[in-house]
Design brief:
Helix content is 24%, strand content 24%. The chain has 901 residues and is α+β, with helices and mostly antiparallel strands.
Length: 901
């Protein structure tokens, strides 16, 4: 689709270049920008266009366009908004999804931009007028519906408006009343309190009383009497009719239409839908009853798209459809998960090929403004927890568990299953992290029993614990950091494995140092390196890695042409670790002797291209309800810590791993059921992102969230320690007296016997062979980092805690010494978040990673801390305080885009 500048409204120039919201309003049939101070204020007589831009962890930015129609808006303004939304999409390279939003029936995605709610205002927007001409304060009655995204609607100020199912807010000049219907949920009441807080601050300047009224309770409370007196006195509320609630219970059919150039809808007669039905040069409408989609092929013109959008709106109007029918406009290649779910055959992963020229144009513009939107290299994982704690490993052996000797616990066998317990110092006491590791060739009985074994150990552990199930070859990076060094051998030692291969007639491949063995060496540093035994065949080689080949008579180290110097260092360390007596023969790819290929069964083709890492996906949060084996999920958009409501069970989908979060007041029965929810979530693959059924599953309990979970939020530790249900917590916070859960707080002070000074790894881990080989072991001494194994810290210093509690580890000099200038950086608390502050001011040009005159002897993990306040705001487009309130991954994303990471 070719577009010229004359097709695009000049008001959209520069739109979408910065992350966040941009809003325009239609005024006198023209497009007018809405100032940020007025974002979230919508007049019912006006029509608005809203653009939300999100910088993803990888790939081009994501754009969502919404046009909002007030109930009193005229048709001319609505038509202009529809056309302008299409122009805005074209200006962005046709890389946006468009949504029509009708007042009172907004999508949850739209509402998530304006937490806690939007309350439409009488009248029309005017770019010339200032404040509303308010005379006397008008009493208003509002209903609040929704557990996470709240729909707020004004209803007539009358007793007849009240019911038992909803939550109501009565806003008067001196007091705000919250009336909770007896059938309303605790979550709805809690969310309504957020709306009360918003009204109190926005309309009353924070100066008014708040009263809560419970349906059916009249125990001589003066607030109750005052509430009912405003309605002329108390009278019973009639019961709601069941018919009104169950009216729309029937399932609607799905119909696909082709929209021709005259705007006529031609039904496509097919019983089943597949992607091949949709042609690139046509537009289609998919009618799903409560929601309607317009799909626009990549080869359609802007005129064809405008005709299709107008035809679909006329279709809904002529059919008398409910205003609650959501209308979404999709460009080919940007199909939403919901849309794809209506088709029987749709590729599991959509290749990002649509409008490459448009995406390229947008990406180029972003790059000019300091945002790198090319595919990112693999992140250096931050060890959010202290990785020098205590490690214990058990092997599942039949119905029993066998404790693996400390000297052998870094060696796992692919035919076995293991329970890993890692104890590390956390906030106020020791924390426990458990992994159930399932070897690739392990027996099914061991895989089933390991969960019950792990649960038994967890139950015997004082305090709560984090549990995780991981499969071989799918381990999260945190798992490897806990081990620091790990060797995975083929074969197994357990009774069930031996029995399994005997019955199946499979040759026993259990590792023997006298036999031929091939190991792939991988990792990112000496504290995160692995040797994985693979099939001893040429096809197992890959130019991106280094390998160790053990032939019995000799040992070869094979260096792939695409491997790095870091890989070569890890290769040398791993050789010493597996067997310090080996004298390996170093072989470069392409210069292998015949004896090398003979040991691998002859030369054969293998992967020679650079192994590309998958895209880094952004996290998604879902509420989950498991009833009679059926899992129902619902996505929470623009999620925050407040969405972790204590009555719920939620899944945080990070693609590489998922977290099942269990609220203290949820009705989940057991840890096993939590893992079952995780497995069912993987099976459903809600986002159609190709999740493996072996994706690691973490189980996290409220109040015991590890830092590698909280890093996905702007985390306030005080909120995590409050007691009571979600309504009681919100009410306490609203009244200015948040109460901390004493039981949670005190349980964190209980140290186990395994507590180690300063969180240093005990001998059970430090005896993993690194000491004998002379390989460095990172330890903490005072405020310095060094590699001396003899130095021990007697207590956990504040600096040590910061190093292992969410801050990025130092990646400076190879000796691991922190240079003295980095001591000018201090970590402080800002609104519950960690912020870096420096006494030195250094210019951006010298701080950049690719600087021509780089500064030396700084803490390279906190380059941004050295910027002046003025230059920081100029580059980051926000204050330092706002930056440090962002989740860690978002901070790193912005730093990377500015070449400060």
């Amino acid at each position: 689709m070719s577009l010229y500048s004359k097709d695009i409204d000049s008001t959209f120039e520069g739109a979408g270049l910065k992350p966040g919201l941009e809003i325009w309003c239609i005024e006198n049939l023209r497009l007018v920008p809405v100032p940020k101070s007025s974002h979230g204020k919508f007049y019912i007589g006006s029509v608005y266009i809203i653009l939300n831009t999100v910088l993803l962890k990888s790939g081009a930015p994501q754009h969502d366009i919404h046009y909002w129609l007030g109930n009193d808006a005229n048709k001319e303004d609505s038509t202009v908004a529809s056309d302008k939304a299409l122009e805005l999409d074209a200006a962005l390279g046709s890389c946006a999804v468009q949504y029509r939003e009708v007042q009172g029936q907004e999508t949850e995605k739209f509402l998530s931009y304006f937490r806690p709610c939007i309350i439409p205002i009488e009248g029309k927007f005017s770019s010339q007028s200032g404040q509303l001409n308010g005379e006397t304060y008008k009493i208003s009655l509002l209903t609040c519906k929704g557990d996470h995204a709240v729909h707020v609607k004004e209803v007539p100020f009358s007793r007849s408006s009240l019911n038992h199912n909803d939550v109501f807010i009565l806003d008067t000049a001196s007091k705000i009343f919250l009336f909770s219907g007896c059938n309303s949920s605790i979550q709805e009441r809690a969310k309504a309190l957020e709306v009360v807080q918003y009204i109190k601050e926005d309309k009353h300047g924070g100066k008014c009383e708040v009263a809560t009224i419970e349906d059916g309770k009249f125990v001589g409370d003066p607030d109750v009497g005052e509430f009912w007196s405003l309605f002329g006195g108390y009278a019973p509320i009639p019961r709601d009719s069941a018919s009104a609630v169950q009216q729309q219970s029937g399932a609607s059919s799905t119909t696909l239409f082709w929209i021709n150039l005259q705007g006529k809808l031609c039904q496509i007669g097919t019983n089943s839908l597949n992607k091949e039905v949709l042609e690139k040069d046509k537009c289609y409408m998919l009618d799903c009853g409560t929601e309607v989609f317009v799909w626009m092929g990549r080869n359609t013109s802007i005129t064809e798209r405008r005709i299709s959008i107008s035809a679909s709106e006329d279709f809904l109007r002529n059919q008398g459809r409910s205003t609650g029918t959501h209308l979404t406009f999709l460009t080919e290649g940007l199909e939403t998960t919901v849309f794809r779910s209506y088709f029987d055959s749709w590729p599991q992963r959509v290749e990002p090929k649509l409008y490459e020229e448009g995406r390229g144009k947008v990406a180029a513009i972003f790059k000019q403004h300091g945002h790198d939107v090319k595919e990112l290299p693999e992140e250096d994982f931050e060890p959010y927890i202290n990785c020098r704690g205590i490690l214990k490993v058990w092997q599942v052996n039949g119905d029993e568990l066998s404790l693996v000797p400390a000297s052998e616990q870094i060696k796992l066998f692919s035919g076995d299953c293991y329970i890993v317990k890692y104890t590390y110092p956390g906030d106020g006491g020791d924390k426990n992290l458990f992994y159930a590791w399932l070897g690739r060739g392990s027996a099914m009985e061991d895989r089933v029993d390991i969960i019950s074994h792990m649960s038994a150990i967890v139950d015997a552990t004082r305090g709560e614990a984090i549990m995780a199930q991981v499969a071989q070859d799918m381990e999260p990076v945190q798992f490897f950091l806990v081990f620091q060094t790990l060797i995975v051998f083929k074969g197994g030692l357990s009774t069930r494995y031996k029995k399994f291969i005997a019955e199946a007639g499979i040759a026993d491949e259990t590792y023997d140092e006298k036999k031929i063995a091939l190991f792939r060496v991988q990792g990112t540093s000496p504290s995160n390196m692995q040797a994985i035994q693979v099939d001893q065949a040429s096809t197992s080689l890959n130019s991106s890695y280094c390998y160790i080949l053990q032939t019995g008579a000799s040992v070869f180290t094979w260096i792939g042409n695409l491997s790095s110097t870091r890989d070569h260092e890890l290769l040398d360390r791993m050789v010493e670790l597996i067997n310090p007596t080996w004298q390996p023969i170093s072989v470069r790819e392409g210069s292998e002797p015949d004896v090398f290929w003979n040991a691998l069964g002859g030369k054969a083709e293998y992967a020679r291209e650079k192994e590309l890492k998958g895209c880094i996906e952004d996290p998604h949060l879902f509420t989950c309800t498991l009833t009679e084996g059926d899992l129902k999920v619902k996505e929470i958009y623009s999620f925050t810590q407040d969405d972790l409501t204590t009555e719920d069970v939620l899944v945080l989908d990070c693609y590489r791993e998922i977290y099942v979060w269990i609220g203290c007041h949820s009705n989940l029965k057991s840890k096993q059921e939590a893992l079952n929810i995780g497995r069912k979530f993987l099976e459903m693959d809600i986002l159609v992102e190709g999740l493996s059924l072996e994706t690691p599953i973490y189980v996290v309990t409220e109040g015991q969230e590890p830092p590698f979970f909280t890093s996905f939020f702007s985390w306030d530790p005080l909120k995590a320690k409050m007691h009571g249900n979600s309504f009681e917590r919100k009410l306490a916070a609203l009244k200015g007296r948040p109460s901390i859960d004493a039981s949670v707080r005190n349980s964190r002070k209980a140290y186990s016997r395994e507590t180690t000074p300063d969180g240093l790894r005990s001998k059970s881990v430090s005896s993993n062979g690194l000491r004998g080989s002379g390989s460095p072991i990172l330890s903490i001494s005072g405020s310095k980092l060094n590699f001396s194994d003899s130095q021990r810290a007697s207590s956990e210093t504040p600096i040590a805690r910061k190093l292992f509690s969410g801050s990025t580890p130092y990646k400076g000099s190879p000796t691991g010494e922190r240079s003295s200038p980095s001591e000018n950086v201090k970590v402080v608390q800002v609104n519950g978040s960690e912020a870096a502050v420096s006494s030195l001011i250094i210019s951006y040009e010298r701080l950049r990673v690719n600087s021509e005159n780089p500064i030396t002897d700084i803490d390279v993990t906190k380059r941004e801390a050295y910027l002046s306040e003025e230059e920081f705001q100029e580059k980051f487009k926000m204050t330092k305080n706002s930056f440090y309130e962002l989740p860690k991954w978002k901070q790193n994303k912005l730093k990377m885009s500015l070449h400060l990471f």
